[in-house]
Amino acid sequence: MPLNIKDLTISSPDIGPDEGLNDRHAKKHDNSPPRLRISGVPEGTIELAIICHDPDAPLPHGFTHWALFGIPADVTEIGPDADSLYRTGRNGFGEPGYGGPQPPAGHGPHRYYFWVYALDREVEGTPTREDFLDRYGDAVIEQNRVVGVYES
Questions:
Q1: Which of 95, 68, 96, 100 lies closest to 82, judged by CA?
Q2: Residue 23 sits in which domain range?
Q3: Where on the phi/psi map is residue 106: left (φ > 0), alpha (ψ -120 to 50), or beta?
């Protein structure tokens, strides 16, 4: 299926494009995920998935802060209670659910990509970010992201 990049949008009232994330979203503070708003879900979407990834982490594959699956296609807002409503994969801390920003001190600002994926089939289980991309990359109808920045 060809990738469509025109309809699906994700935004957040808590962060703007390339703007700073508040301390309440950081792991060492409240560890509360930002609210996310989703619109323009393409026809044929069976399920949505959310992945928060830090490509600036000093690790070969960056760092996964959140993997959320089983989100119905008609959901328009993901709130701080998302971990209790949907299936959570393990984050880079080895824990299920949201694990907020925690860049190494002195490493500078890190970008946090909150990706939404519209999928044409259901995700089974709670894969890691890497497994999700390997196993479900061909099921992505459309994807988009909003980016927040955080520095320790």
A1: 68
A2: 9-150
A3: left
Does residue 70 fall inside a structural domain?
Answer: yes
Give the domain CATH number at 135.
3.90.280.10
User: Using CA atoms in the order 36, 141, 99, 91, what is the torsion angle rounded to 10 degrees?
Assistant: 170
| pTM higher than the cut 0.85 | yes
Asked if residue 1 is part of any domain, the answer here is no
Integer Cα distance of 129 and 55 in angstroms: 12
Q: Mean of the per-residue pLDDT values for the chain? A: 94
Q: Whose structure tokens read 């109808």? A: 141
- Report yes or no on 2 lying in a domain: no
Number of domains in the chain: 1
Q: Which residue has the tokens 């992945």?
A: 51
Q: What angle do CA 107, 129, 41 make, to 5 degrees?
A: 110
Residue 52's nearest CA partner among 71, 67, 31 is: 67
Each residue's pLDDT tens digit, 86-139: 999 999 999 999 999 999 989 999 999 999 999 999 999 999 999 999 999 999
Coil, strand or helix at 53: strand
